Every structure is written in C-alpha cells, then in structure tokens.
Amino acid sequence: MAVGVLAHAWAAGGVDGWSVRVSSAQEATPAQQIWTVPEIGALPNNDNGRLVRRGRDLITATYAHIGPEVPDRAKRFAGNNLACGNCHLQAGTKKFGIPLFGLLEKYPRYSARSGAPITIEDRFNACMTRSMNGRPLPVRSPEMQAMVAYIKFLSTGVSPGQLVPGLGTGNMPELDRPADPARGEAGYANACVVCHGPDGAGIRRSLPTTDLGMMPPLWGNDSFNDGAGMARLITAANFLHFNMPHGVDYLNPQLSPEQAWDLAAYVVSRPRPHKAGLEKDFPDLLEKPVDAAYGPYADGFSEQQHKYGPFAPIRAAIAKLKAEQKGTPAPR
Question: Whose CB among 69, 182, 207, 241 lies 3.0–4.6 Å from 260's, allowing a Cys bridge?
Fold first, then answer.
C-alpha cells in the first residue's frame, strides 16, 4: 500500500483544488469524445520537451531534487522525503489516483480554503507547505516552471470545460458510524505494514537519489502535515479504496468501503507535523470540508466527529445554516 501526500487532492471534495470528486463508475460514454493521456516519450528533445520531462521528474522524485537532504541547501524546499507522485499516482496519470490531467484551464480559480482566487502556482505551493511540509517555491523558479509545464502537457487535447473521466479519488459510500482507528490498525497490519512498516515510516533507499522504489511514510516527522488534504478522512479513505494495496485500481478494488474507512481513520489518527495557522483556513466556515479535523466550525459538531464521522449530520446542519443565511427553506 502506498498512500502519500496529497498533494489532496485538487478541487472541491478532492485534495482541495487538484481534483474533482466523482463516482467510481464514471467513464466516457459513447457520445463523449475519448481522451487519453499524452505520451511524454513522443516529445521532441527541444527546450519544451526537456522542461516537461524535468517537471515529471520533480513530480515522481520530488525528494531527490528539492527534498530536505539534497546537497544544495538553497534547493531544500520540501520539508519531507515524500514525492508528489505518492498521492498523484503514476506521475499524475492514474484514474482516481488524484490525477493531474485536465486541470490547467481551471486556474485561476476561487479557493474556499484561502477565501480568494488562486493561480496554479499558488496551488502547487499549497502542496509544498502542507503535503510536502516545506516552504513555497518561487513562482519563477525553474522547478515551478517545469512542474507547471508538465501539468500543461498532461492537459494536451482537453477542451475548455471538458470533464475528463477519472479525476479525484472516487466516491464510495460513507459509513453511518464513526470510522474506527482500532479496526483500522488491524487492517494496516494485514495490508500495509509490508510496505510502510509498523511505525508508518515507509522504506528509504539511498537518499538523495532519483530511485523511485521508495515507499512513502504515512505518519511521523517525514510525512505530510495535518493541514494536507490526505490528512482528511474522506480523501484518504477513497484514495485507499480505489488504489491500495499497491497495484489496485478503481476497476478491481481489494479493500471494502468499510475496511478503507477504518484503515484511513487509523492513518489520520497517527502523529504528524502540525501546520501553524490552520484556524485561518476556510474563512467562510460554511465552506469548510466536513472532514477538516481542526476548528473553528460553524455547525456545532465536535472536532472528533469532523475527523472520523459520521458526516451526514454535519452536512445537514451546514445545509440548514446556509439556507437560513439565504432566507430559504433548508433541504430535507
């Protein structure tokens, strides 16, 4: 099992901005235009081709280029040894593995988390300071330019407004009870420990290198912080169900929804770095995700319920508050 940063998900319901949560069954219908991920190997060996390939390298082996142990201290932007590709699977090309295709034309866009419009560079830096637990990349840095070029390349052939199948993490049924970390711990021992270890530290191989065999740490000081999208239960649980253990895809999941919810609860319950200033996230509290495990909240529910669910009562309370704000009847 290889759950990583979240780079969370990037839009409503995903890893806040990078994805759009959609049904696990979403596929192109015969009436839709078929689109496939472009082939990076077909790019010419010119300036743009090299820039795009550099961007892909930064996604798949972030730790080796801008991680906390690279020789050039000025390039130590990431605060952990994760890679963007730990969450954006197969270099951001896997359906329901929080892919990065079809996203460029969505920016600039409004971010509920910041309460303001953000650019694609802002979104990258949200991941840098949360999922990578580091510091922002300068907008004009070669690393930022390369990653943006790669995102642009992945959107080749996507028409404006086109919703490409497979975005986000999928959307499985929710539990009508709180997700249970104790049950999840047993599931972790059975399905995850061989890759991520009993302490969640993952597997390191001769860092810093471009070795792609590293299994990411799921908690602890070398993992994503508590402000990352993958630290939220809904994102983590859906990601696990449709992608884990390693090698699984949305067409043939191995974890049941109940197993995935409990396993994700165990992962998000574990200690990880704290991001300062989380109380400033989502200035409009009615837009705050129901699984954001840190206050303040507008709905009156506890941090514990926001962390583990069930989420239906929280959604109902928020819908009522929104209706009262607008002076319209609440949905039933």
Answer: 241
What's the pLDDT at 316?
98
Q: How far is CA 13 from CA 5, 6, 10, 16, in A?
A: 16, 12, 8, 6
Query: Rounded distance, CA 40 to CA 157, Å?
Result: 14
Rounded Cα distance between 96 and 115, Å, is 27
Three-class SS of residue 297? Answer: coil
- Tell me the C-alpha distance between 149 and 36, whole Å: 18
Distance CA 240, CA 2 (A): 9
List, for residues 189-203, the tens digit of each pLDDT value.
Answer: 999 999 999 999 998
Enclosing H/E stretch for 236? helix 233-243
pTM over cut 0.85: yes
Structural domains of the chain sorted by starting position, each given as residue range(s) with its CATH number in brackets: 1-276 (1.10.760.10), 278-326 (no CATH)
Residues lower than pLDDT 70 in the chain: 1-33, 205-213, 328-332
List of E strands, 254-326:
none
Q: What are the percentages of helix, strand and coil residues in the chain, rounded to 5?
A: 40, 5, 60
CA separation for the pair 173, 149 (Å, rounded) = 36
Q: Which residues of 209-241 are buried (b: 16+ CB within 10 A; e: fewer)?
A: eeeeebbbbbbbebbbbbbbbbbbbbbbbbbbb
Given a contact cutoff of 8 angstroms between Cβ atoms, the answer to whether 100 and 59 are in contact is yes
